[in-house]
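Minutes, project huddle
Topic: does the predicted pose make sense with protoporphyrin IX containing FE bound?
PN asked that the exact inputs be recorded in the minutes so nobody has to dig through chat later. Recorded below.
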Amino acid sequence: MIVTVPGRPVPSPAAAPAEDPRPELLVDADLHAHGDPHGIWRWLRRHAPVHRHPAGELPAFWSLSRYADVRAVYRDPETFSSRHGVLLRPVALGEDPGGGMTLALTDPPRHRQLRAVVADWFTTRAVRSLEGTVRTCVRDVLARAYEQGRCDFVHDVAGRLSMHVIGTIMGVPERDHENLFRWTNEAFEAGVSLAAHHELMRYFIDLMERRIAEPTDDLVSMMAGGTLGDDLLTEEEILLNCENIIGATENGRLAVAGGMQAFLTHPDQWERLRADRDLLPGAIEEILRWTSSATHSMRTATRDCEVAGQRIAAGDRVVLWVPSANRDETVFADPYRFDVGRSPNRHLALGIGEHVCIGGTLARTQLRILLTELLDTAGRIEPAGPVHRVRSIAVAGPEHLPLHITPR
Ligand code: HEM
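Predicted holo structure (tokens), as shared on screen:
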């Protein structure tokens, strides 16, 4: 157990962070690593829900912080395009090279065609067929952690699990999973794009060429044989989509590790879950809401329009702050409380609408199987050192989570 808390006192509302009227700091990665952006988001929701952020190293953009506005923009891909990038990027780097080519960076109707090419691998049925693989991997990573008595939960458990599962889906042979894990870790740690990591890209070029020549039953083969209208996907499109999908799994590992961290700081919720496993599906949704590991999505207006009474011009960028939407006090009762029994819980952690996360079922399944194994087999789980958060305005969660962990 994490820590035993006897009984369950009647909760008083969890304290909201003090309002912080400095929205300009939201683009400072140091704030996300060392400070608390929630004070700024709370201030924005109350005082400036559609706030203009001036151009600097990043282009100018509108900040949206309220649930209703974030949801409305996600649901209107005709007015708010993903084609020009979905993450803030320094002006000096130019537009994202994946524009118009990857799942995340295309608009309908092309987006729907592309999504149909890969969708089969992410359906509930497909993910169910992977449950055995996920469980075996969870048992392996936990056995290793128990044997050593300590682990970095981000790297040794959440990261290894995410990479093993996506490697299996993509058709990376088991013997190469360790390399894939090492290369992606190096890329994430260096904060560079996966494409800039030559070994990883060389590996995927080789895998793609093998699957084009001799398709098997995996995601890369599916893309190699996939068509958009009458045309096969180009090699560039296949590679950029491999990068998009592997990169997106970082959200998964951060949510898993952030969930563990939430239980360490809310041990009463762990005990509640241990006592009543029926709470597990709700606990998973609460982990997703609480961690909101994808910090923002960006869109570009295709026409002049209005959001919450504010005029937005065609070509303007709009940034949707997901963690802020997920703490909106007009939607979530006591939003700063981590509550595994929360209901309803219609969070936006996985987006919504046209581009809703394709890996959502997979992410939930990994969380469910890992939490179940931990509840069944873990004895003590305790912090083994300070926790540092990732230094990023795009993703949030612990960079390292050192734990002492022993079996029951
Ligand atoms: C808890 C973990 C995860 C979170 C919080 C998350 C979050 C999100 C969000 C917010 C979006 C929408 C982005 C937008 O509209 O601009 C998205 C899209 C996407 N996610 Fe996830 N994700 C997670 C796990 C995964 C996993 C495990 C995979 C891959 C296996 C994945 C693959 C994708 C892809 C490919 C897209 C683009 C879908 C599209 O544009 O049609 N995600 N994710």
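Observations noted during the meeting:
- DSSP finds 15 helices and 14 strands in the chain.
- Residues 82, 86, 103-104, 115, 166, 244-245, 248-249, 251-252, 255, 288, 293-294, 297, 322, 349-351, 355, 357-359, 362-363 surround protoporphyrin IX containing FE (CB under 6 Å).
No decisions taken; revisit at the next huddle.
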